[in-house]
Amino acid sequence: MSLRLARHPRLYSLAQKIVSANYRAVRRAIRRELALAPGQRVVDLGCGTGNLADLFPQAQYVGVDTNPAYIRFARKATRRSYAVMDVAHLGLADNTFDAAVAIGLNHHLDDETLKQFARQVRRVCKPATRAVMIDIIPPRPLNFLEHARQRWAERGRYVRPPEEYRHLLATHLTVERMYPLRWGFLEYSVIVLRVEKG
Ligand SMILES: C[S@@+](CC[C@H](N)C(=O)[O-])C[C@H]1O[C@@H](n2cnc3c(N)ncnc32)[C@H](O)[C@@H]1O
């Protein structure tokens, strides 16, 4: 998202929904990978304006993001629980969550921060739970629209090939599977991770 647009949570939220067709492909992938029972706890890491909170109507949802304006907007818009927090230093108790999601977050994190983030996910999630991470990847050469979108509309500086995301996350989490996800010209990678504690 362009810097100017990103400063206005309402516009930013709307633009994100429009570009992703209200996250249709992302929602489908999360529903496929996470089956939460009513009352179970899910944490949305880098939740932005809370656009995906409605995916978990019966769960105890907590969204975290470093941007206080997004969190203020998300609280008003969705009436769910949110906190301003850095994903590399989560102020959340150990073994709290039954699932974690991170959508469009990892390309904002440098290598060390991404590893630290993976460590935090492992810490705050219960053993044998799942984390689903979906992020943009370098587009195929002829996908000019996505090249242009990433160049002009993305603020994250660490768009990586799927294998690189996988390698960094695998320092603290077990990779169950990874696959490409496409919606129109948007190209994502889905990484499904398992939390294992010895
Ligand atoms: C591309 S947006 C995605 C937002 C949301 N997940 C969605 O799909 O609509 C990335 C978000 O990650 C947040 N973010 C970036 N670095 C972060 C960090 N270290 N800790 C927490 N949030 C972070 C940004 O503020 C931004 O809201």
List the helices and strands and how they pair.
Elements: H1 3-6, H2 9-19, H3 24-33, E1 41-45, E2 60-65, H4 68-78, E3 81-84, E4 97-103, H5 111-124, E5 125-136, H6 144-153, H7 162-169, E6 174-183, E7 186-194
Parallel strand pairs: 1-2, 1-4, 2-3, 4-5
Antiparallel strand pairs: 5-7, 6-7
The structure holds S-adenosylmethionine.
Could you characterize what this model shows?
With 198 residues, the protein is α/β, with parallel strands linked by helices. It has a single domain (3-194), classed as Vaccinia Virus protein VP39 (Rossmann fold). The chain is 34% helix and 27% strand. It has helices at 3-6, 9-19, 24-33, 68-78, 111-124, 144-153, 162-169, and strands spanning 41-45, 60-65, 81-84, 97-103, 125-136, 174-183, 186-194. It starts with a helix and ends with a strand. The mean pLDDT is 94. S-adenosylmethionine (SAM) binds at residues 16, 46-48, 51-52, 65-67, 70, 86-88, 103-105, 108.
